[in-house]
Specification:
binds NADP nicotinamide-adenine-dinucleotide phosphate; binds flavin-adenine dinucleotide; single chain; 20% helix; 33% strand; 246 residues; Elongation Factor Tu (Ef-tu), domain 3; 6 helices; 2 domains; Rossmann fold; six-stranded parallel beta sheet; six-stranded antiparallel beta sheet; globular; alpha/beta
């Protein structure tokens, strides 16, 4: 059986001029929250495919992806033109190890994301069983502008459902309407993020999942390593688990 199936576009939600959510229906295999699949379109007789993380909970029939229309981007610009009823190819089988079952048991879970990389964390939070593993979860979202803080209604709903969930937005290129100003990295380096949350992590009490801009992922890993945390690997468990988007 082919690993590619047709997905029918159910809806496209535009958050800003460049950020949108694509909701499709397709006969895909079960996946774990945090995993990604591939979307693909034919362009000039060539099939172009790119990875996209699932935003929806694994038990939902509506498959949701949170995308940025990258200026000059080969596939994202085409995906941004889709309308309900159109079809796109989707890889049946999801991939990736950026999932909660790869994270050692711990008291705190820090979910650090930039841009569209908040998506896999929303999937994990939607699934709910995260609360059997962690007492405190902090969802951190770094973006350029206040308008880039998508999914506010969903986050508020999750916080009402799970009072132990903290949400911190970090806006870098204008004064924030809420949360912190600057970059996630500086707020970890000088610990303002932790003070803001009234939660002090230590290697014995905290796990960090870091996703998004590769420079942010690398710099965050370095800062955490300097503070005594280590990379989490199957053979050698640690506290830093990462996924880079490009
Ligand atoms: C595991 C994994 C999961 C991913 N999940 C998502 C997702 O859920 N949503 C999503 O929008 N993208 C996601 N990406 C990125 C995605 O696969 C594509 O790279 C992106 O859509 C650009 O493709 P393109 O063909 O339009 O641009 P290309 O012509 O391939 O240009 C790539 C350039 O676009 C920029 N870029 C790529 N992705 C992003 C991004 N997410 N935010 C800001 N700038 C970016 C970078 O500068 C990169 O060098 C993921 C990538 C990986 C590896
Ligand atoms: N034309 C260009 O020169 C240029 C440059 C970059 C990106 N882009 C494109 O513009 C779009 C922007 O997407 P986006 O805003 O979702 O993604 P983004 O550029 O990754 O920015 C998201 C957030 O991550 C922060 N960030 C970036 N690098 C970081 C680092 N090393 N450490 C910590 N935080 C870091 C940004 O802070 P800052 O605001 O401080 O960067 C911003 O707050 C993408 O398509 C990207 O490819 C264009």
């Amino acid at each position: 059986m082919s690993n590619w199936v047709e997905a029918k576009v159910k809806d496209i939600v535009w958050w800003t001029d460049t950020l949108f959510s694509l909701i499709v229906n397709a006969d895909v295999e079960p996946f774990k929250a945090g995993q990604f699949t591939k979307l693909s379109m034919m362009m000039n007789d060539k099939r172009i495919a790119r990875a996209y993380s699932y935003v929806n909970s694994p038990d939902s029939d509506d498959l949701e992806f949170y995308l940025i229309n990258v200026a000059g981007g080969l596939l994202s610009q085409q995906l941004a033109k889709l309308t309900p009823g159109d079809t796109v190819l989707i890889e049946r089988r999801a991939s990736g190890f950026f999932t909660l079952d790869e994270i050692p048991a711990s008291k705190q879970l820090w979910m650090l994301s930039t841009g569209t990389a908040i998506g896999p964390f929303l999937s994990m939070l939607e699934q709910g069983d995260i609360w059997q593993r962690f007492e405190e979860v902090v969802l951190v979202h770094g973006v350029r502008l206040n308008a880039d803080l998508s999914y506010q209604a969903k986050i508020t709903q999750l916080q009402q459902q799970y009072p132990q969930l903290q949400y911190v937005s970090v806006v870098s290129r204008e004064q924030p309407k809420q949360g912190l100003h600057g970059r996630i990295t500086e707020h970890i380096a000088n610990e303002t993020l932790f003070n803001h949350c009234h939660l002090i992590p230590t290697p014995d009490t905290a796990q960090f999942m870091v996703c998004g801009n590769p420079e942010m992922v690398k710099e965050t890993s370095t800062i955490l390593t300097d503070k005594g945390y280590t990379r989490n690997r199957r053979r050698e468990p640690g506290q830093i688990t990462v996924e880079q988007y490009w």
